[in-house]
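User: Can you predict the 3D structure of 2OG-Fe(II) oxygenase? Sequence below.
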Amino acid sequence: MSVIATVDLSAWRAGGSAADEVAAQIDAGLQRAGFVLVRGHGVDPALARDVRAAARQFFALPAEVKQHYSVPVGGRGWIGPGAEANGFAEGTETPPDLKESFSLGADTATGDAEVDRIWFAPNVWPREVPALQSLVTEYTAQMRSVADDLLALCAHALNLEVNPFAELAARPTWTMNINHYPPVSVVGEPEPGQFRIGPHTDFGTVTILDREPGAGGLQVYSEDGGWEDAPYDPEALTVNIGDLLEYWSGRRWPSGRHRVLPPQPDAPEEDLVSLIYFYEADHDALVTPLAPPVGKVAGLGPVTSATFIKERLDAISVG
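Assistant: Sure. Here are the predicted structure tokens for 2OG-Fe(II) oxygenase:
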């Protein structure tokens, strides 16, 4: 049996005893691995399908065309092969991840030029795939709604009278990466220790993943089970918590450690696209960890969201 629990967000939204049961399930599930599968999320699967199809059109463009949209890790646009090595976030030197990404994020400018440059820069949309902008805009709006519900559920799971993220995520930073994992015929044979995404944890509050199943797919780590293939449910979103929510919980919930395997010998031409929504908090949110007995670690000091996350983003940039 997988360490990853499945919860029904529609039952949480319904309230009453059913919501209490979901809250207990998510607390137990997050304590095991920092991951849950979420059904009843209300996101139309056709929307994710259409976003993925438009993204594939972009990734199929010649490299010299995509280069016009090239940005470093943390930027808005195309992050090409070789730019990122997520294993560095754990202090492990690994070859670059075998992927390319199209990245975008919150663009609700604050008026502070330096803050906006880092956290609320304008998104860049490829004119070669005009449908991508409207599709992704609708998709991220729905992901924002799911993320807010998940944070409210997390607060309820810990029996808090007030959901602190109602204020801490009033104008949050967030990023969406559309990750393309090409086949061996494109990326070549993996080097020793090379992954599509190296072992790491995410940095923010909750991450919401719409994935395609594959032999070279997602694996999740837990203390009980070690590395195991993440279960796949076509009707569920895969959700994990990031370092900031782990910290806020007083390390009650471990940040979900995971990796994406390289192309496998029995499926070398597998070609996958994942939609990943990384939710955070207001850039200037002061996140104060929960003390025991709710949290597991005493004496953790407050942190500012932007500082906390920026340190981790800088660590995974190659070069």
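The domain at 5-316 is CATH 2.60.120.330 (Jelly Rolls). The CA atoms of residues 33 and 222 lie 5 Å apart.
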